[in-house]
Amino acid sequence: ILGAPMGSKAINWNGDVGVRSDESGVDLTLSGALEGNDVRMDSIQGQNDLGLGSVDWKGEAELKSRDEWTGSVSGDITVGEVTMGRPDAEFPVLSINALSGSFDPAEEVGIGTMKSIRIDDLRLLHRDGAEGPPQILSVPVAEVDRIDLLDDGIAFGQVVTTDLKAWFDIDADGNVEYRVLLDRERNLDALADRAAEREERIAEDAQASDSGFGFSVAGVRTTGDTQLDFRSRAVTPEISITVNPLAATLGLMDSSKPDQPTPMKLEFGVGKYTTGTFDGTINLLSEFFALHGKGTVTDMDIALVDGYVRRGTGYAVHSGTLAAELD
């Protein structure tokens, strides 16, 4: 039914089970409560496995087997200690401390549809004790209007985050850190080989995807104390900037279309006086990071970007402010 190998150390069921079979197929009905511990779903493609530390569901389900399995699910569910990543990876791509929501059979898509979801302590590429940023993204609380569980992935609806914190690092070779980490986990080939394969794949099929178990997000809006830590080791002296406050709105992101730009609007501040805006697109999932659009910066301390000024002009900056329109 799920299209992937599945295992669990313990699954307990307390409720009623009904089975009806005839020449047209099999009908299975469940009504009660289910508890599971250490549940794992392994990707057939060997990409991202899904692990659930605990699952508690109370409600009703109906499954029908005709030419294929169909069904509906209702009730409330709570999931703890969610991880997603390769089984041989150094660290998970995604981890969630707790997730809760309700299944809505009236709007069911794919395997099931959840509504009114709350996610606690979401972390992307979390690395305890590793060099560099502790993770790429940390979200203490996120609320999602719906999640569709599909045969080949997960589709998130509109996401509202509270107190999001992100890290954006550029290493000494000029590579964006989160891309390097993702590439390492995916065991991709050298950069030149990836570029050639990317162009060939786009030419053959613009919709092609090799991501296995994929995901999409309809949109993201930040609230609360949102912060971005930017660091670049590609210049001397190194640059380290904390962007706070930060208000961000992002549009559709789809791992099956990694080269499709995501609309993005930003309002931000740096230090006591600097403010700025941005309205354009960003490519977060493609193999090559890209940012396009228009923006403004006012009262920016030029010394904050001294490393880039030195590399571009050959002069060191000790003081001064910048106001600019970016296009």
The gist of it:
The chain has 327 residues and is mainly beta. It is 10% helix and 57% strand.
Protein model, in words:
By secondary structure, this protein is mainly beta. Helices cover 10% and strands 57% of the residues. The protein has an 18-stranded mixed sheet that branches. The N and C termini lie far apart (50 Å).
Low-confidence stretches: 185-192, 205-211
Strand % is over 45%
- The number of distinct β-strands equals 18
> What is the alpha-carbon Rg in Å?
23 Å
Order of helices and strands: EEEEEEEEEHHEEEEEEEEHE
**Could you give a short account of the major beta sheet?**
18 strands, mixed
Mean pLDDT, nearest integer? 83
Key terms for this structure?
single chain; 327 residues; 18 strands; elongated; mainly beta; 18-stranded mixed β-sheet
Give the helices and strands, then pairings.
Elements: E1 6-22, E2 25-41, E3 49-65, E4 69-85, E5 94-103, E6 112-124, E7 137-150, E8 153-162, E9 165-170, H1 177-186, H2 191-204, E10 214-223, E11 227-232, E12 239-243, E13 246-250, E14 253-254, E15 262-270, E16 274-283, E17 290-301, H3 306-313, E18 321-326
Parallel strand pairs: 8-10, 9-11
Antiparallel strand pairs: 1-2, 2-3, 3-4, 4-5, 5-6, 6-7, 7-8, 7-9, 10-13, 10-14, 11-12, 13-15, 15-16, 16-17, 17-18
